[in-house]
Design goal:
The complex is a heterodimer of chains A (about 100) and B (about 160). With about 100 residues, chain A is mainly beta. Helix content of chain A is about 10%, strand content about 40%. Chain A is globular, with a radius of gyration of 12 Å. The relative contact order of chain A is 0.31. The model of chain A has no long low-confidence stretch (mean pLDDT about 90). Chain B has a two-stranded antiparallel ribbon. Classes of the chains: A mainly beta (about 100), B mainly alpha (about 160).
Chain lengths: ~100, ~160
Amino acid sequence: MVSGKSMEPKFYDGDKLFVSAKIYKFREPRVGDTVVVRDPRDSRMVLKRIESIKGSEYFVRGDNPQWSTDSREFGAVKYNAIVGKVIFRYFWSRN
Amino acid sequence: MRSFKSPQIVYAHCDIPCGIYDPHNVQVAALTVIRMMDLINESGDASGTVPTHNISRYTTVKEEHAELCKKEVRVIWGDYFKEEHLSKHPDLANIVHEIMSLSSKAKQGIDRNTGVELLGVVNKFAEIFWETEGIETKRVTSPYKPEEEIVYPVL
């Protein structure tokens, strides 16, 4: 379940998402993927989008950058910090 | 092999989701622009060193506060207002655009009417803002120069 507004207007606080941890066993993460990653500072799971990839480092960013703490702050994350990719949303918190 | 885990929370936050929004700074900035225009216009001929110095200071402050109007409105517009506000107040986009244009015009000149016009649109913006918060407003004359009308929330 999403908590916060850094991914608005795509995902809202309270949305429920199905996240696949397996998909990246079959293909590499790509720019534009919406992913759950471990914040390198405290390991909590955060929802962001992959903005760019340099080698094995992934720069992630919120869709709502004014309300997001992401790679601009905590730096790039490693491949093993990626928990999974958002596949679909099964509950809309709005409407 | 376990394929599915029970739902967990994923965070999509900034570290400071302060939620503090208030158009008051925009209103004070617009009043300041008018006040600086008045001071410049009252200065008359600025041929001496002191008047030139004073007018430079007034102009700098006018410039800064016109820019502040734009900045503060941009933040409220970008971070606070959402789709549902826009559908309820379809004129909001025009109001924001007018604030941007009039702020620039206020930088470029010293016509007091431009400042008053800017304040008028800023007041409309403030009224819409407080309405979306479900808070009534009142219009009062500022108790300090330039003594122009501004919108206050009735708290």
